[in-house]
Amino acid sequence: MDFAPCLIDGCLHTASDGAPLEVKNPATNEVIGVMPMCSAADAASAADAAVRAFASWKRTTAAERARLLRTVAARLRTARDLFAKTITLECGKPILEARGEVEYSASFFDAAASAGEMLEGSTIASRIADRRVFAVREPLGATMAITPWNFPLAMIARKTGPALAAGCTQVVKPSEETPLSASLLAQAMLECGIPAGVFNCVTGDAATIVGALLKHEGMRKLSFTGSTEVGRLLARQASDRLVKCALELGGNAPFIVFADADLARAAEQLIAAKFRFMGQTCISANRVYVERGVLAQFTALLETRMDALTIGDPLLESTRIGPLINDAAVAKVQRHVDDAIKHGAKLRRGGSVARLAGMSRRFFEPTLLEGGSSSMACACEETFGPVLTLHAFDSEQEVITSANAVSVGLAAYVMTQDSDRLWRVVEQLDAGVIGANDGAPSAAEAPFGGFKESGYGKEGGRMGVEEYTRVKYISMRVRG
Ligand code: SIN
Predict the structure, then answer these.
(1) What's the 281 CA to ligand 1 centre distance in angstroms?
(2) Does CATH place domain 253-443 in 3.40.50.1820?
(3) CATH number 3.30.565.10 given to 2-249+454-474
(4) pLDDT tens for each residue of 244-266
(5) 370 CB-side CA count, 13 A
(6) What is the separation of C-alpha 478 from the centre of its chain, rounded to a whole number of angstroms?
(7) 387: Cβ–Cβ under 8 A, 6 or more apart, which residues?
(8) Ligand 1 binding residues, C-beta < 6 A
(9) N or C: which end of the chain has fewer CB within 10 A?
């Protein structure tokens, strides 16, 4: 079994204080790699390294940082197959999607490089004749990122690209479920010439590592992608030292189909929004509202497309539905389906775990439910699985009220060919990411982030880089 390394201060580490961290393939349960179980002292060393490296990294030019980040992007593309296979093995993402994740990750490094080169301050008109006022942007300092298992590579790229482009350094703590892609990225960063301490990667127990990093007096920012529950906990911990937070938390996205939509196109967009990584994304469509008059027609279009979703070994090119990440995820999805049926929803297809020869019991059938009530678990909570529930609606105002009637607001989708209605609805939706006739709205150049209990802070594009800066104003007296 290969021991994959962490990266602290430019050195690859495989040593571990305690039992090593075993990484399992969710499709087969086989152990596919081991990582160090880093201690609090290891995390503190990584933070020390990031603080030391900041002193020189912040003095490099934006152009020099951009050149290095573009080199990393190119390296990811060259090694696409290795990264994609690693992603598939550690999180069960179908290989076609895993390749897409590698490109998505590379695009974050490219977009951050460009945005970093374009960072601007401002000149402010003064009320006093001999005074000139300027606002300049400076990098925040050493930062930390805690990343999830659903995009083992891309969510690191989304945080690290902007951090480094702005002139910050970073310590990344990847999910315990998926540290192997992070380790490969750390090795690539080193080979691409990212200086020692600028990027560090520590693996192991979340509470130990995050606790040590948040206590470190040099840490200036925490970026986290994960559940609202954990985000709240981290925000509380970070408040002790007033560490700036960017929290990209859970969603419960509404997907609205008006009768005037191109229904075939809407069905395709819904398949993309719902079944990408088997529904295990924060922007996955969770509540589908279809105008009553076209419900039957839309359901038929959807069912035809669901029939084409092949379940199987995620390493196969033909597979669209692989395993869920772990047994707890399967149990949650099954609970949501059973609960919906108890609430009166009609099960149209799927609804249970698929049996596949030689594979684990984590493959959940693409599931379609219709009806039920707004109080059932799959309407109130994020399912994070391949379950679609269709609700009929009768009016625009009614559907907007239903769409906004949850505590979170990450993504929302609207399908209509009426441009007036599109704007009207988009303006009233309480979500940070809108798919307007688009089931795949993510883009490295766009400001990604949610409203309400989906967190705060933007990631990606110009705003993503600005989040890693602080603004200093300078008042200068000029002799006449
Ligand atoms: C996420 O699920 O957290 C990210 C989704 C995306 O970037 O599209």
Answers:
(1) 5
(2) no
(3) no
(4) 999 999 999 999 999 999 999 99
(5) 14
(6) 48
(7) 279, 333, 336, 337, 340, 350, 364, 367, 369, 378
(8) 150-151, 225, 248, 281-283, 442
(9) C
